[in-house]
Amino acid sequence: DAGVIQSPRHEVTEMGQEVTLRCKPISGHDYLFWYRQTMMRGLELLIYFNNNVPIDDSGMPEDRFSAKMPNASFSTLKIQPSEPRDSAVYFCASSDGISYNEQFFGPGTRLTVL
Amino acid sequence: AQTVTQSQPEMSVQEAETVTLSCTYDTSENNYYLFWYKQPPSRQMILVIRQEAYKQQNATENRFSVNFQKAAKSFSLKISDSQLGDTAMYFCAFMGTGKLIFGQGTTLQVKP
Predict the structure, then answer these.
(1) A-to-B residue pairs, Cβ atoms closer than 8 angstroms
(2) Quick one: which of A93, A112, A98 has its CA closest to A43?
(3) Quick one: what percent of chain B has pLDDT higher than 70?
(4) Picking from A32-46, A55-69, A92-106, B28-42, which range would have the lowest pLDDT averaged per residue?
(5) Which of A106, A110, B1, B76 could form a disulfide with A6 if both were Cys (CB 3.0 to 4.6 A apart)?
(6) Chain-chain contact of B100 with A45 (C-beta, under 8 angstroms)
(7) pLDDT tens per residue across span B44-79
(8) A41: distance to nearest CA of chain B, Å?
(9) Closest residue to B47, CB basis, from A33, A44, A102
(10) Residue B46: φ, ψ to 5°
(11) Of B44, B50, B102, which is closest to A43 when you measure between CB atoms?
(12) CB contact set of B86 (below 8 Å; sequence gap of 6+)
């Protein structure tokens, strides 16, 4: 298996633009997680899905952020409009269960909003 | 709310020596899981070791072992025979009811 795939690996955009980050989880995994990593706040869980259904989105910072999982093999995290403070590394992770099961992380997308 | 604290922002160790990274956490739950993740300069998050709270025996994975003290809510990571490839940021993480909560991380530098 190729592991969790994220695209793009790097994204540079201007303030006010829409940004879409993409994730393909490991086949067979029924949980998908979106995290954000910044120097100030560390690694934060934004939202997670189980069987394509959002379970907990309490970490989503504000209405500018939205996430979807239209099928078991694809998820998007969208920021509209983007702001400089959204600059961070965004990770997608998947697992075949919760709690003890290892979450496998993708390589991350480094987002820079100018 | 659960919190995870790593009190050592940076540490260094000589190659082949042993180093211990500290982690404490706060929770009112009795059943939970603890993890150590490694993030090398490549940015990839890699699971190093995990521990189930109901198990008293400390987990071990090759050169990596933990000292789990449930009453003290402490979960330290010991790296034996440190190698240059161990240079990375290490994150302690807590999983209770679904959310994986990370500490702020400890940057470990292994010196030749």
Answers:
(1) 42
(2) A93
(3) 99
(4) A92-106
(5) A106
(6) yes
(7) 999 999 999 988 899 999 999 999 999 999 999 999
(8) 8
(9) A102
(10) -125, 130
(11) B102
(12) B38, B79, B108, B110
Residue with tokens 């955009």: A13
Instruction: With beta carbons under 8 A apart, name residues in chain A contacting B45.
Output: 91, 93, 105
- Check the CA dihedral B76-B61-B56-A95 and report its sign: positive
Residue of B99, B104, B106, B107 to mutate when probing chain A, most A C-beta within 10 A: B99
The answer to whether A98 and A48 have CB atoms below 8 angstroms apart is no
B chain contacts of residue A89, beta-carbon cutoff 8 Å: 43
Residue found by looking up tokens 């009795």 in the block: B30
Per-residue model confidence as pLDDT tens digits over A58-80:
999 889 999 999 999 999 999 99
Q: Which residues contact B63 (CB under 8 A, 6 or more apart)?
A: B79, B80, B81, B83
Only one residue has tokens 């995994």, namely A29
Q: Is B98 in Cβ contact with A105 (below 8 Å)?
A: no
Residue type at A46 in one-letter notation: L
Candidates A107, A94, A24; CA nearest to B40 is A107
Q: What CA–CA distance (Å, rounded) separates B62 from B49?
A: 10
